[in-house]
Amino acid sequence: MNAAEPALAPSRPSTGLPAGASSGMQGAREALAYARGDKSIGKATVIAVDDIDVSKIRDKVKLSQSAFATAFGIKPATLRNWEQHRVKPQGPARVLLTIIDRDPVGVLKALHLESAPKKADRRKAA
Question: Using CA atoms, how far apart are residues 1 and 68, in angstroms rounded to an integer?
Fold first, then answer.
């Protein structure tokens, strides 16, 4: 190195973020501080969701526990746990149950599971 050349500082690898942007590490530090109880750092959003009454939903489609579980691909034990409020349905199961609750006839039609047809009139034609 020539004495007239200035010394260069070692270069840091680029993060690909614009200058002044915070890194993921800063976000991780804030999340950890928040989890430890420091509410002055970061922000948390809590979304309250209503409980789902699974037995009421099943009653709307007039299916037994076994038939409901089979029709919608749910383990019978899971369905019982939901109905007895031991476990709450989450994720895709919650979405499916909400759809069944809002449009039980439409769901049954879409899945070709229409309720049993009304009994035919057995009176003989005259």
Answer: 79
